[in-house]
Amino acid sequence: MAGGALSFGVRPGAPSAVSNRSRPKAVRIVDAGYGRDSLADTLQEALPPGAEVAVLWRDPSTGISAGSASPGATSALASRAEVLLQRSPVGHHSHRIESAWTTAEGVRVAIAVQLPGAVAAEVREIWLTMAQRVVVSHLVALRTLARAESLEKSERLQQALFEIADLAGSDLELADMLRRIHTVVAGLMYAANLYIVLYDDVRDSLRFLYFADQVDTYVAEPERDIAIDDMPNSVTVALLRHGEPLQGPSELIRDRLGVARDARHGPDSEDWLGVPMRREDRICGAIVVQSYDRPDVYGEEERALLSFVAQHILTALDRFHAREELERRVEERTQALQLSNRDLQAEIIERQRAERLQRALFRIAELSITSETLERFYTQVHDVVSDLLYARNFYIALVSDDGQGLEFPYSIDERDANRVARKLASGLTEYVIARGRALLADRKRIAALESQGLVRSRGSLAHCWLGVPLFHNESVVGVITVQSYSPAINFSVRDQELLTFVAHHISIGLARKQAQDRLVSAHAELEQRVDSRTRELAQANTELLAQIGERLRVEQQLTHQAMHDALTGLPNRSQLLDRLAQAITRARSEQESTFAVLFLDLDRFKLVNDSVGHSAGDELLVEAGRRIVEAVREDDTVARLGGDEYAILIEDIDGPEVAEELAQRVLRALGEPCWIAGREVFPSASLGIALWHPRYRTGAELLRDADAAMYRAKAAGRDRCAVFDEAMREEAVRILDLEADLRRAINGDGFVAFYQPIVRLDDHRVIGHEALLRWRHERRGLLTPSEFIGVGEDSGLIEEVDWILYGQVMEELARGGEGYISVNVSPRHFRSGDFADRLLRMIDDAGADPHRLRIEITEVALLDDVPRALRMLRTLRSHGVLAQLDDFGTGFSALSYLHRFPIECLKIDQSFVSGLIGDAQPESVAVVRAIQALAGTLGIHTIGEGVETEAQRAALRELGCTYGQGYLFGYPAERIQPQALLRAVSG
């Protein structure tokens, strides 16, 4: 400015979160740019030559003070104008013109003129009137320019957000994506020097993801972790520790935060702005811009803008890492599916083998009854075995009655056609009989046994030999054998297991057949000798008694099988319930007697079955049962209830601490590693304890409560135990009662719709209502959804409740009236393909006007299934039902999709509305302004939710929001209130 006589000040606002350095408070000179002359020059042209002019004004709404002075104007004249801003002029002077007034927009204006000589009062009045009009016109022009600049800034911000959202969803590499984001930020502020860091608070380290600087030559290494302890004098580390934005010269920032100067961290900057990136309450990084040659580049507006952009950048980084994680998981899942497919094929083959085995067992059982002779029985057994494995060379060897010899009642062989009976010697068959275990041996194994002197081969040398012992009453009575003379045919361990299983049933069938034959023979002999020899009759009776004993033993064995688990040999559920009934009876008769039930479930047992097969799972179940038995006391009952569930009955205990100590001992025993199917497995279990109480009537009730306690332990993190207490019982009863009440309320009239008005912010005119769900509980009174929505979601009843609410809204619409009614639609409904058709049918059946109905949806419902959501919204819109996007601004996912959906209105979340007043005002104002800009671009309106104060209403109105909803305008009511009553309440 000419002569430097005047120094009018700077923009308003707090200069920095770091520095309290004083800034000049003079008034900023503003030349609007309308021609070459300033405002003061224009006013000076109507005055005599040599006159000096100073004009000042202050806008109270923005706090901006500005002015204009003619060339040569003195500082005294400027000071006089500043005095006139505070008070009106006193007296009249022929050599001066002074005036101060307030415009219709509330702007305070002062004019001070020093004349070269005396001027008539009439001339001064005329000039002053003209000057006031010129100043007012000038201020109007300045406001117009400010609005244009604000609109342009909002458009740039909106475009930047769209670009960042698109970059976040793109397939670009991380470095390329960050470079493009840098370009977007540079379009919003001075950002020639920018870097982005990520902070790991667990390892206390950071990584420079991106670094662009015109002076500092540092090259970012995104994959390199830098320990925080290695950077004690870094301003960036200080920013992460401080947790709030920092702005100002880097020297002043270091002084304030106590950071020493360190040349390794780059040169100092004239202005430095750093903003932390947050994920909830955790600092996870920062974005920094700086200027080396220009001070005061960044202010409050740049800080708020960079904070908003920083969260979008964090979201972009999260999406980038999420996409990488998704690709990795897809690859892992593909491999897992391939393995599952192979396991499934193996399971199919295994099941086919099991079916063949089952048929074979049924066939053997049938043969033991239907075969006319033992020779026929042996032949048919050979046919059954041939269906299961290679049995071209097959024989059955039995120990003679005197135990000294070996007989071959059946033999089919390619090379040894006849096998004659012999004394027991050292052959492979005798080796199996002596050891009582199956033997699978190839030529090399047979040679090794011979070299050790354990066996001596007889007959033709087999390439592969498999023999399985036959048992009767736990004694080896013979051997069933298959063998191969060809190297192309070998037997496997699976064949050994199969033949062993079949041999067990052959032993039973053989014993039954032999018993039948002996019985027939005995009866025949009895009929021949009954008339002649009483002694023979006694002998027959003795043999008959022996057979009866045999049958009794079989019956006892069947009874044992009925009361025990077939896999582990432990007592089953039936036997456990019998013992529990006895324990309950004893506890009721003996008041001092007490007991407890432990319910145990193996953790992640399905993973074993799915990964290594059901056979390995069975091995783990057997091993788990064995460990539990070893861990408990001798008199305790361990039962397998099915699957991977076990129960333990412990009697005669002194208190709950005994049960808990035993539970910990069982968990420790199960936690020891074991080898299953060639893999080391670390099993664990969750265990629930139910102590005896007189309220229990049956053992099933004890098992039920122990099961509930087990699920509590599993929910607490597995590999632990929990004791069933009254709190669990009361919570279970409460949830059960609430679910029953919910079902009764659905069939009755317990659910009602409450209506909250939606008004125009200018005049409080009601334009519609939102229907809110309430439950009029018969005992607890009026309940809001938060008190029963969890039970409704778990039981699947909440969708029926929604349709009850929709039906009441349709009846209200059918009664007529003005304005629309909006209903909330959860993502559950959008997953149903017939939701739109069902809603339209309900509107038609009620005779309601579809144009008065709105649906409120969330961003989750939009993005869950985009094609389906788009199809539903278009169907409803074609019939007049419009859609509103609820809780907008709480997420970022729908930003890049919003223009694709037919949305009629955005509802600004109440968290941003409440933030318009208070400490969070800059951030909330920036977010609401961005939402308004986005809505304006898309041609839709906005509704502010949760408006509770007049100050919030005014702030929303000033930011361009047209409509509002909240307690300021009316509380939810069961009936729609008349307009006059709402005005009285809100007024």
TrEMBL record:
One protein family per Pfam: GGDEF
Gene3D superfamilies listed in its UniProt record: 3.30.450.40, 3.30.70.270, EAL domain
Domain GGDEF: 593-726
Signal peptide: none
SUPFAM superfamilies, per the entry: EAL domain-like, GAF domain-like, Nucleotide cyclase
Region (Disordered): 1-22
InterPro entries: Biofilm_reg_signaling (IPR052155), EAL_dom (IPR001633), EAL_sf (IPR035919), GAF (IPR003018), GAF-like_dom_sf (IPR029016), GGDEF_dom (IPR000160), Nucleotide_cyclase (IPR029787), Rev_trsase/Diguanyl_cyclase (IPR043128)
Membrane-spanning intervals of the chain: none
EAL domain ranges (all copies): 735-986
The name this protein goes by in its record: EAL domain-containing protein
Taxonomy of the source species: Bacteria, Pseudomonadati, Pseudomonadota, Gammaproteobacteria, Lysobacterales
